[in-house]
TrEMBL record:
Name this protein carries in UniProt: YtzH-like protein
Pfam family, one: YtzH
Annotated InterPro entries: YtzH
Organism: Heyndrickxia shackletonii
Length: 92
């Protein structure tokens, strides 16, 4: 059974929150973020205000996949991570 867009956004926020709280993550999590964002961006049911946030998260996930030091990448995006989750909470 596929996830609804609400479930996808919840999962996305959970991964971002974990990155923000734990200050670490995995390439697999970044790949999951990428898949979730791709799926959400093609979904006409999502709030248009979330689209720019999703594009930023997509860039974050791409950079995370390709970085030499993922933990440093996550640390350098701490303020973005919390802001993205707050913004998604206000639109979802």
């Amino acid at each position: 059974m596929p996830l609804s867009h609400h479930d996808q956004i919840t999962l996305l926020k959970d991964i971002l929150s974990n990155h923000q709280t734990d200050c670490c993550g995995s390439v697999a999590e970044c790949e999951q973020l990428e898949r979730l964002v791709k799926s959400l961006l093609v979904n006409p049911s999502i709030n248009n205000n979330i689209r720019p946030i999703l594009e930023q998260v997509y860039s974050y996930s791409q950079n995370g996949i390709n970085t030499q030091n993922l933990d440093d990448h996550i640390l350098s995006n701490q303020s973005n991570l919390s802001q993205w989750v707050q913004d998604m909470n206000s639109y979802s």
